[in-house]
Write a structure and sequence with these properties.
By secondary structure, the chain is mainly alpha-helical. The chain folds into 2 domains: 72 residues, no CATH class; 44 residues. 64% of the residues lie in helices and 0% in strands. It has 5 helices and no strands. α1 runs antiparallel to α2 and α2 packs antiparallel against α3. The chain is rod-shaped, with a radius of gyration of 28 Å. The N and C termini lie far apart (64 Å).
Length: 130
């Protein structure tokens, strides 16, 4: 996918790979600007330096290319996928953190209390270490 994306970058922009992901000057004035922008979204995803952000399969890339050919915008779909993945990562991290806190609270509540600690707590005295 990565190599194909890089070749497509050169073919669609006419620029050298060293200039990736720069776009050619004046592309925004092209009458096919929307189509080019949509195709560029596919190329950028295929050639992304970060492996986990690239297409996982040729079928996914083909589906986005078909959407571009049909005149549909793919940039939103790609952005939505990334936002959902980021949300899932954050939500999962928060869940793990919450479970760890609950586990710590339960563990602390179940820890045995020494008799001298109990007497000191009941009497309102401070507990000396040791």
């Amino acid at each position: 996918m990565y190599s194909l994306g890089r070749v497509l970058y050169e073919l669609t922009t006419g620029l050298d790979l060293a200039e990736f992901p720069r776009l050619p000057s004046g592309w925004e004035n092209d009458p096919d600007q929307v189509s080019f922008s949509n195709l560029n979204q596919v190329v950028l995803r295929a050639a992304d330096p970060m492996r986990d952000r690239r297409y996982a399969s040729a079928d996914q890339m083909l589906a986005d290319l078909a959407a571009v050919a049909a005149g549909k915008k793919v940039g939103f779909r790609l952005g939505l996928r990334r936002r959902v993945a980021k949300f899932a990562l954050i939500a999962g991290s928060l869940l793990v953190l919450a479970l760890a806190i609950v586990g710590l609270i339960r563990w602390r509540a179940a820890a045995p209390v020494r008799p001298d600690e109990t007497e000191a707590l009941v009497a309102g005295r401070s507990i000396s270490p040791g």
